[in-house]
Amino acid sequence: MTAQTAQTAQTAQTTPADRADQMDRAEIGELVHRFFRALDERRFTPGWTAGLLTDDARMETPLGYSRGAAAVRATEEALGRYDRTQHLASGIIADVDTTATASWNALMVHVRGDAPFMVGGRFEAGLRRTAGGWRFDRMAVRAIWTQGEPPAAVTAGPTAPRVG
Prior knowledge:
By secondary structure, the protein is an alpha+beta fold. It contains 3 helices and 6 strands, in the order ααββαββββ. Residues 155-164 have low confidence and may be disordered.
């Protein structure tokens, strides 16, 4: 059997449910990347999270917990401490049913002046399907390590050991 024949046979065995699951996983992966891109581009115009979060989304970060509009404001305020940021995601794993969960590795680089503050960790999220597609309804940042000095009001917790 040639590689092309094997691929054709595998594609023929893919059910509509399998294809729907693959499409959901792809949409969730894109949502993760769009969220990170929005954070780094800082275009915090009114409603900037409408295509990303549900109105009642819960956020948990090393800075605390928030929900809904307060979660959006807390995100904007946290990023406002820095001149620029870059958030990178890898290893996105999504489990999809009527709702979904997703987790991914993250490297978060925050720069103030010339001093970088880096966080390596993992995001864990819940998602809800809406009329506009998948949206995060909860998200938690789990810091594994940090390097550099955070802004004065931020301290690394016990789950985020310092390196370097």
